[in-house]
Amino acid sequence: MNMPSWLRAQLGRARRTTQYTLASRLPSPDWKAIISSDSAAWADAGANAASGPRVLIATGVGGQPNINPLASALAVALTLRGANVQLLLCDEFLPACEKALIYEVAPKAMAHRGPHALCGHCFAIGRAAYEPLGLPVHHYSVLVTREERAVASRIATEAPFATIPAFIFEGIAVGEHAHAGALRYFARGDLADEPQAESVLRRYLEAALLTLFATRRLISQQRIEVACFHHGIYVPQGIIGEVCRSEGVRVVNWNVAYRTRCFIFSHGDTYHHTMMDEPLDVWEQIPWTPAIEAETLEYLKSRWQGTRDWIYFHEEPKEDLAQITREVGVDFTARPTIGLLTNVMWDAQLHYPANAFPNMLDWILRTITYFARRPELQLLIRIHPAELRGFVPSRQLIFDEIRHAFPTLPPNVYIIPPESSISTYAAMLQCDSVIIYGTKTGVELSSLGIPIIVAGEAWIRGKGLTIDAHSAEEYFTILDRLPLGRRLDEPTIQRARKYAYHFFFRRMIPIGFIAPTTARTWRNAFGWWPYDVQIERIDELAPGRDRGLDVICDGILTGAPFIYPAEASSSATQPAAAAAQA
């Protein structure tokens, strides 16, 4: 029986009301109560900010409880500093987005209806997070014209499938971010053997184009000067960044950092890119003291168990070498061992000109083939635990890909699988040297004197600390020099520790009012919620109240570096360390 349109509309309104009510009960922050405690001051701040610099908080996807608390706090903090803050929120409009994952929306449903099953909750969470602020909230459906919807649909339908990853529309690389979004949805490093891959990728392309149209119009209408939003890749965030840069709008991207209570902010692009190109002089001149070195080493050691980080993968990692030998079969005393550390296949699949190989899997397989011809060496491959234990478990497992290419592994190649609780650090410390593609572990291991060979987009590349390959030919020439038979010299180790301090203590900005949730990987029906914003009054976000927040807001408003001055004094470093341990 067909449902009358009036009844369908009424049920839709009831559903949205219920979703908004549930979303309003999420634990942090309760902006309605916080603002009502000092509504006059908030009204004055809004009036004073009317003529201020126009800042867009443009994360766009509302159903992200790991994003909304800080994004909404930034909206308040920037308003208190005189910025005219606008917000962008998807109102169940995009046909695909980074919120959708194969574990939540099945491929057939995604191909035919997009993330429709998530949209109601997602929009409700966003509304509950941002509407109580009373700041302008712009919606995609209002910003995109009927003609633009038709254009996006036509292009997404007609573009040859094979050309989509490199597809450029009016100077914007919409295809790259659409492809990265589809890979993230499928949790794979490629789209092979996915029956719905083409339909899903076309949805992401359409969503990317719609985001392009919406962002352009919003920038034009509101005269946006700077846009601040999470991540900077995938759909919609990656497209927002591309459009802003093309329109001369300053871009600020941010992510939850590794250290507890900390966040990484970057100018111009996602930190996946900017950390590789960061000028060396921002950290080379850090005044180095024994106290700072001790603090650095103490934190690096804590990463073995993850006790001071947002996320960790093993409660009690195995560090006993005899136990490692029994489990994996590698005998560190028999022959020199070369370590190899992988990344998650689908994560941040963007173009990096510095890569020596077209992708990580190609690098792994060609490296195994090389070591098969070097029986005097051992290759120990540690597959990243996040393949199985991460927020988005991979559906394309490196172990399976290796076994497919090598049904029988070369006798001198050993694998620590992702489910193993073997300590990566304990195993790699027994190696002559370690080869990496993009993992940040190179920062830590070089600080301990381990020589690092870089084949991909690792942030430690180009810092004067590692042996960097710029082509496959150069890479294998480097491998021909193995084993190196030595540790890094003392000046290089100290330089590595200085960069580690910069990376973990200065680029990761602590915020005092951020409190980790009780369960460190806590999730509910609305998603991952790692932290709360613990404030009672809006003046707690005013200038001078939190040093980390001041660094962030100054960077957004003036373009100042997003570097926390942890080394300035003991009063600057010790509270941050204590907070991270709490």
Explain this structure.
The chain has 582 residues and is an alpha/beta fold. It has two domains: 21-256 and 512-545, Rossmann fold (3-Layer(aba) Sandwich), CATH 3.40.50; 281-506, Glycogen Phosphorylase B (Rossmann fold). It is 44% helix and 12% strand. It has 24 helices and 17 strands. Strands 3-2-1-4-5-6-13 form a seven-stranded mixed β-sheet, sandwiched between helices. A six-stranded parallel β-sheet has the order 9-8-7-10-11-12. β10 (433-436), α20 and β11 (452-454) form a beta-alpha-beta unit.
- Our measurement of the CA-to-CA distance between the termini, rounded to an integer number of angstroms, reads 58 Å
Strand count, sense and barrel status of the largest sheet are: 7 strands, mixed
- From the spread of the alpha carbons, the general shape counts as globular
Q: Figure out the total of helices.
A: 24
Strand elements, count: 17
Strand content: 5-15%
CATH class of the largest domain: Alpha Beta
CATH architecture of the largest domain: 3-Layer(aba) Sandwich
Rg on CA atoms, Å:
24 Å
| Portion in helices | 40-55%
Average of per-residue pLDDT values:
90
Spatial arrangement of strands, main beta sheet: 3-2-1-4-5-6-13
Reported by name, the CATH topology of the largest domain is Rossmann fold
Show unreliable segments: 6-25, 519-526, 570-582
Q: How many domains would you count in the coordinates?
A: 2
Structural class: alpha/beta
